[in-house]
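dumping this here so i dont lose it
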């Protein structure tokens, strides 16, 4: 799986303002900014992202995904 493939899958299931991915095809690190994260705890944010991947996590197409998840306001504050 390529970074573009993974990005497309996540964006198809979650409205994102920004996604940055790094990885080797199986192990990934993602920075994801989405308004869907508003009012959600960290685990809930991660669950939203994992839900977009569905069986890809279980079939080992994506072996590992580490992520930083931000709301648009949190992201803007980090960029300031």
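and the seq i came up w/
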């Amino acid at each position: 799986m390529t970074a573009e493939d993974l990005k497309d899958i996540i964006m198809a299931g979650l409205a994102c303002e920004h996604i940055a991915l790094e990885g080797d095809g199986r192990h990934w690190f993602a920075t994801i900014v989405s308004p869907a994260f508003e009012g959600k705890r960290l685990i809930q944010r991660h669950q939203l992202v994992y839900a977009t991947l569905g069986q890809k996590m279980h079939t080992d197409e994506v072996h590992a995904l580490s992520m930083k998840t931000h709301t648009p306001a949190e992201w803007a504050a980090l960029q300031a």
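Residues 3-79 form a domain with the GMP Synthetase; Chain A, domain 3 fold (CATH 3.30.300.90).
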